[in-house]
Amino acid sequence: MKQKMLAKAVGIALVLAPLASQAAVENITYFGYAKWGNIYTDNDDHNNGKGERNDVIRASEGYGNYRLGNELNWWEAGLKADVWQNGDAYFDTTLYLGSGESWGDVSIIQMWSAGHGLFASQPDAKVWAGERFYRRHEVHMIDIKYWDTSSTGIGIEDWDLGFGNGHIAWMAPNSSADGRSLHNIDARISDIAINDTADLTFGLNYIFTQNSSYEESDITTSGAMLSALYRQAWDYGSNTLAFQYGTDALAGGLMSAEGGSNRKYSTGVEHDGYSWRVFNSGDLNVNEDFQVMYSIAYQDKNLDNNDGEKWFSVGARPQYSWTDYMATALEVGYETVEAQNGAGTNDMYKVTVAQMFQAGKGVWARPSLRIFATYSEKNDEWNRDGKTYGTAMSNVSGKTSVDEVTFGFNVETWW
């Protein structure tokens, strides 16, 4: 049935494509991203002993994952087109589809429109509304988007303030805990130039529930987060330093990761407290043939109910190019998660070697076709009994350890 639905959707798209040239559609831009392959394991406990991993290697109850040879399949593709214009004013529309492991599970993941040139004094400003990936910030190597408010919303962005660009949005996500409708007020100032190669970004998010009445008196219904980013580029690479401080429902919030639990908006449960975290990541170009991607991150989530955790992650990916199209990468990553209530500490160590064929030299060259092998060690002392907001408990049987060898192949590409 899903395959039939996909075929029908593709058929409709093919039928409508020729009509685009007859309508007032101009400046069509195509874009997308994909990662696809197989990961095999020597551990019979994974995926019912089928021989493949269906999850990523990470420290239990942690965030993100060192992604080289350690990511699940996904593709997304879409287009943006100008659909109306009158002088300098015009509107465009973005439509974006995506799918995971099952080819038939295709869904619309972005659909939004923007009006440009609507204000004579602000030629670069735009008004937008719809479902979109909204101004996300990420650390690519550990597959974490640490400032991700993507959802349905409306806003004005790129308003020239003289010293930077202002952005204000009213987003409408759902609570991670109980699914209740939320309001997220997102205010940012970006592109504050420090010099020719460095800039600052500041942002404030405030969320609250649509219906804030709960029978329990200790349920969290709102929260705030302050974010500050410093980006620096130089002849030998680039670096981004990010600091975030969150309270209550946004303690540890606004972060999405393939390997971690979804705890972006923690309303509907007892979650009063605070968190602070730091991400420092970038790439170092030693010379034309040798580059290093690196990441270090720390978060302290301190909750009133003693159910927070301290998370630490550090790793690097040196890469050497043998030719313009062939390279070898070695990724080493370490991660720990310590329970606030003393239930224990989980950790993970991973090393991956990958032989790659890619479109040019450097750590950002894509497409990249890879053959890889990984050795990992994983130790668990505590868990939340399978619940995202469960109480941290020491393992009944004590510390459990898993040594694992995985190997496989994949492609990563964007356009």
Give the topology, please.
Blueprint lengths: L1 H19 L5 E16 L32 E13 L2 E11 L7 E10 L9 E7 L4 E3 L4 E4 L3 E10 L4 E7 L10 E14 L2 E12 L12 E13 L2 E12 L7 E2 L15 E13 L4 E14 L5 E13 L4 E14 L5 E14 L9 E13 L1 E2 L9 E2 L5 E15 L1
Antiparallel strand pairs: 1-2, 1-23, 2-3, 3-4, 4-5, 5-8, 6-7, 7-14, 8-9, 9-10, 10-11, 11-12, 12-13, 13-15, 15-16, 16-17, 17-18, 18-19, 19-20, 20-23, 21-22
What is the compact description of this entry?
With 415 residues, the protein is mainly beta.
Overview of the structural elements:
The chain has 415 residues and is mainly beta. It has a single domain, classed as Porin, LamB type (Maltoporin, Chain A). It has 1 helix and 23 strands. It has one helix spanning 2-20, and strands at residues 26-41, 74-86, 89-99, 107-116, 126-132, 137-139, 144-147, 151-160, 165-171, 182-195, 198-209, 222-234, 237-248, 256-257, 273-285, 290-303, 309-321, 326-339, 345-358, 368-380, 382-383, 393-394, 400-414. The strands form 3 sheets. The protein has an 18-stranded antiparallel barrel. Strand 8 and strand 9 (165-171) form a beta hairpin. The longest helix is centred in the N-terminal third of the chain and has 19 residues, at 2-20. The radius of gyration is 23 Å and the shape is globular. Mean pLDDT is 93; it is low at 1-12 and 18-22.
